[in-house]
Amino acid sequence: MTWQEASFSRMGAQLTGSAIRQMGILAAGRPDLISFAPGYPDPSTFAWQAYRDIADDLLRGGHEDTLQYGQTRGYAPLIEAVVPRLRAQGITCTSDEVLLTTGSQQAVDLVTRLFVDPGDVVLVELPTFTGAIAAFRSSGARLVGVRQEADGLDLAHLDAVLAAERAAGRRVKFLYVIPNFQNPTGGILSLAKRRALLDWSAREQVLIVEDDPYGDLWFPDVTRLDETRPIKADDADGRVIYLQSTSKTLAPTFRTAWVVAPTAVIARLDVAKQSADLCSSSLDQRIVHQAIVRGVLDRQLPLLRETYARKRDVMSRALSAQCADVAHWTPPRGGFFLWVVLPEGIDTRALLRAAIEAQVIYVAGAPFYVDGTGANALRLAFSAASASRIEEGIGRLAGVVRAAVGASAPSVPQAGR
Amino acid sequence: MTWQEASFSRMGAQLTGSAIRQMGILAAGRPDLISFAPGYPDPSTFAWQAYRDIADDLLRGGHEDTLQYGQTRGYAPLIEAVVPRLRAQGITCTSDEVLLTTGSQQAVDLVTRLFVDPGDVVLVELPTFTGAIAAFRSSGARLVGVRQEADGLDLAHLDAVLAAERAAGRRVKFLYVIPNFQNPTGGILSLAKRRALLDWSAREQVLIVEDDPYGDLWFPDVTRLDETRPIKADDADGRVIYLQSTSKTLAPTFRTAWVVAPTAVIARLDVAKQSADLCSSSLDQRIVHQAIVRGVLDRQLPLLRETYARKRDVMSRALSAQCADVAHWTPPRGGFFLWVVLPEGIDTRALLRAAIEAQVIYVAGAPFYVDGTGANALRLAFSAASASRIEEGIGRLAGVVRAAVGASAPSVPQAGR
């Protein structure tokens, strides 16, 4: 080790990359590889022409601030446009309770830095989003997992885990949850449990960080809008920090998301963001603002719900045809992901090598678990690939999985394949 | 204090905002206020039409990745375009030694997180950039200042400071320097001292973080290109982490900067960036890439040097005419800033109230000093305001300063005013 490397901080020395991002790198530049790995939106759904028109208008030079540094808090007209949208979701807030961030990942990171000292406990779902795990770990958090049931978090386990951490003298800073179309399970937290979590937060004085990138993407055939009501909507006492993003609806490039939290929290997140990146892109925030005020986002949402519901069907049917005897999954009611559980003893990380040889990739389950379990699970994103590529990819994956399980080909081929 | 506020981390509870950003907020929405506070480039220099043409081409939808998530490391063609430009500056590196960041502020933050544990020492110039100070403090660094002389850092003081910190048992992680047109002094570090710093780094095994946002903006009348040669250009052994930005040359909105460092450092910065914001904007990085390959940046640079040299002249002449007897300054040889020292006993923070009433603002000196000094200094950015606004603003400021010092109006009015 060089003296330069010996200079790393404790966290710096421990940094390990995201499994999902690494899959993205593997996928780059292999045209025939079918990637179900990253949670990328379908680029064919992007409103290209609308963004082109908007950019053309913005870059005429009429407003010199368009290319300048902006306020750290974010572009004020965008905040003003977001507030009534939040209200329509049931979240009553003022513009002082909103901060725009460089994607939701930055929001997770800033919230973590604001609350977590090394050794503090963050409670997470088992499994949960790897990007959040990475941000929590980089602040030195102790991560403790809470099991999930069919309708979301196991509240008895939550109580038990909290009690055990407190009995050990540790400070529990917040519970991180993704109630809508959870990453990676695709599950949805029941309304009864959402209300119970608010009571739990008040009783236990533990904050809830509610990450909601997929809430707008409910599938009309199986989900009602009211089932996606944010926990934050019923939070009268500032117990919930709510995160929402445009990356899954408009486009990831704009890196535009927002945090809704009490003003005292927002004011400090603002300061934390100053040292993180000074401000987000003025142009990108203006494009998102125009996409909202010109109705682009509202026109996109029904299209996106139909598109991703259809892709879920394609993937789910292909899996049913080829893997019903060797894999379990619950078709998701929204979002981007289908979570597959293989028989005990299969290690989906080890299986990736064969999958890559078969030109298909997924994200192995274990990185989503903070308790070392999940080896036999995997996450499939049906969001980005076309229907025909989804069918082809599941065919490839089925071959890999069946070979690993020692199963022969399924006896009844699916019509049309 | 609510239980939510009692949950803040130690760093979170200490967060204090940037003096510069607060000045920006003060300035917002007051059309007649003349701001010399933030280091904003002149928006009339932005290549609006070129960006409009580039955006129009990029948003035709020919490359679906344009609006998608990108690699954390950055848009590969932009990295490939940056490497030969670095080589032209004397910095020989491969693309594996470059990481693109969301502005240089993110680079400072990521480097800090990679190296600094709470209590570790970071050495900085007296005075230095407040945004860097904020990032260092948010990682719990102990900041120790090194005096500057007319040709930059006082090397004897550097040795003394290092020895004292080590004698106290502290780990010194890096020296942060801005060799070209330093923020806030506008000074330039001599070539002899640059070489001496490299020797110092090798001898003492302390890294150098070289922040160079202004290096391209040397003023042809008083500075030669070779005087801006980066320290990194002569670093054969990976002792220097070099930061460069497009915010002061193309435009701040693109939030596009880069770090040059040994591959082992870049690999970990990549992981740290994953949890900070996943990736920077794909569209913004493509606009910057096109601005480079289409020659926009190279056409801009001579124009920018002339523009900012002329503005320096305007401000310097106005100060000479109105404040020569009550203020000291050295006209800078590049960059955006003019650093003014008032008589001892004047507190420029207290003076800001009168300045705001007179509709002119600057940044007080003290926040740039980590040792509690600098109360009688102030930083003026001549970059953003027009020539006539600079003259008007210095007139207003002169009135405020002269009143505070107790001096009457200068006896010889400047011709033309």
From TrEMBL, chains A, B:
Q: Which UniProt keywords apply?
A: Aminotransferase, Pyridoxal phosphate, Transferase
Top-level taxonomic group: Bacteria
Q: Which Gene Ontology terms cover its molecular function?
A: 2-aminoadipate transaminase activity; pyridoxal phosphate binding
Q: Which Gene3D superfamilies match?
A: Aspartate Aminotransferase, domain 1, Type I PLP-dependent aspartate aminotransferase-like (Major domain)
**Which residues are in the Aminotransferase class I/classII large domain?**
48-397
Q: What is its EC number?
A: 2.6.1.39
What this protein needs as a cofactor is: pyridoxal 5'-phosphate
Q: Which GO terms describe its biological process?
A: alpha-amino acid metabolic process
InterPro entries linked to this entry: Aminotransferase_I/II_large (IPR004839), Class-I_PLP-dep_aminotransf (IPR050859), PyrdxlP-dep_Trfase (IPR015424), PyrdxlP-dep_Trfase_major (IPR015421), PyrdxlP-dep_Trfase_small (IPR015422)
Its family remark reads: Belongs to the class-I pyridoxal-phosphate-dependent aminotransferase family.
What is this protein's record name? 2-aminoadipate transaminase
